[in-house]
Amino acid sequence: MTTIPPDLIEMLRTAQRIAVLTGSGVSAESGVPTFRDAQTGLWERFRPEELATPEAFERNPKLVWEWYVWRRELVAEAEPNPAHLALAELQQAKDDFSLITQNVDGLHQRAGSTDVLEFHGNITRNKCFREGVIVNGGEDTSSVPPGCPSCGSPLRPDVVWFGEAIPSAVLSSAFAAAERCELFLSVGTSSLVQPAAGLAEIALRSGARLLEINLEATPLTSLADHSLTGPAGEILPALLQEL
Ligand code: BV8
């Protein structure tokens, strides 16, 4: 059972401007493997960083496309877990709440969160590799990856690969949320991937307090005002109970 320090409870109750960054640890209890979990089956010989790049896709579009098909199937079978539900509830309880996620699984939205800032895109959407426009049907499914209906180029998932820029609108909204929040929560992330991992430090520099919830220590832990170690699916509901 999570014991929550009284000053953290006070912080949670009084803060009206909250920003949250989530990583794949929040979806782990929904059965979606975290980014650094050992990959299984066909994918075990690859590191995600080797597949989630434009170069990997250009080198072997079929391999990368099929990795995303496999991951989409995992996500389709997954259900939001208590961590996702608690964050949707927290959004309702606060005047100014921003949820920034590194996850591409759409589970926050399925849990009821709105205006989610998808920092790394969303695996359930496809876009044309050449034109960059979202494609919603009409693709040429005789090839793998399917072909864009307007130009025939291969489709790719609408995610941000390593070496690609975060979509500028999402980036500026996330920076603004980190700058104005009173309390920043970093949940279920190893805080290794940039520029997402830098958001907590922007919040700290702007005078916010920092709460980290994770299974293990990260580069952020020493900077946090509070660091709760344990499953997000247990700790977040416990925090909401105290509100
Ligand atoms: C960019 C989508 C520049 C794809 C992903 C400094 C500044 C800027 C860039 C860099 C920089 N240094 C290095 C870079 C390059 C790179 C980078 O950060 N590399 C890392 C490896 C060092 N960054 C980039 O390339 C970014 N782009 O900067 O572009 C640019 C600018 C202008 C113009 C052109 C270019 C883009 C990065 C985005 C990559 N895409 N995902 C896909 O999903 O296929 S990142 C990927 O990693 C996922 O989104 C994932 O969410 C993310 C981070 O991983 P985590 O979520 O933290 O997952 P992880 O497994 O690591 O950790 C899970 C944690 O949860 C663990 O700590 C675990 O203990 C914990 N946990 C587990 N279970 C639970 C739990 N906690 C609580 N409860 C549980 N139950």
Strand order of the largest sheet: 3-2-1-7-8-9
Task: Please summarize the sheet with the most strands.
Answer: 6 strands, parallel
Task: Provide the CATH topology of the largest domain.
Answer: Rossmann fold
Order of helices and strands: HEHHHHHEHEEEEHEHEEH
> Oligomeric state of the chains?
single chain
Q: Judging from the principal axes of the Cα atoms, what is the shape?
A: elongated
SS-derived structural category: alpha/beta
Instruction: Count all strands and give the number.
Output: 9
Count of discrete structural domains = 2
Number of helices: 10
Overall average pLDDT? 95
User: What CATH first level of the largest domain would be assigned?
Assistant: Alpha Beta
In terms of per-residue confidence, which ranges show pLDDT below 50 for 5 or more consecutive residues?
Answer: none
Task: Provide the β-strand percentage band.
Answer: 15-25%
Radius of gyration: 18 Å
Fraction of residues in H or I helices: 25-40%
Bound molecules: ligand BV8
Distance between the termini: 17 Å
